[in-house]
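User: My collaborator sent over this chain with a note saying "see what the structure looks like." That's all I know about it. Can you take a look?
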Amino acid sequence: MQKGKKTGVAPKKTTASTQVEKEAQHNELLIERAHEWAHFHRNPRSRDRMDEALKGLCKADQRKVYLCGQRIAAGLTVRLAK
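Assistant: Without extra context I'll predict from the sequence alone. Here is the result:
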């Protein structure tokens, strides 16, 4: 590549901003799954489907979904612990 020549490529975002965006997207996914878990939890006949909301998540994220889902089912606000 020659010096002083523009490549036409947009500058990359800083790693801090992309990390924040990834974390925000991940938290949105967990909250969405928590709502799904709470929906299954409300109806005793669909409680065997609660595990579907936890599939594909690591143990820590499963716990977050489970705890947030309990809060949602009880009518409390969602709170994600770090």
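A starting point for your reply to your collaborator: The longest helix spans residues 15-42.
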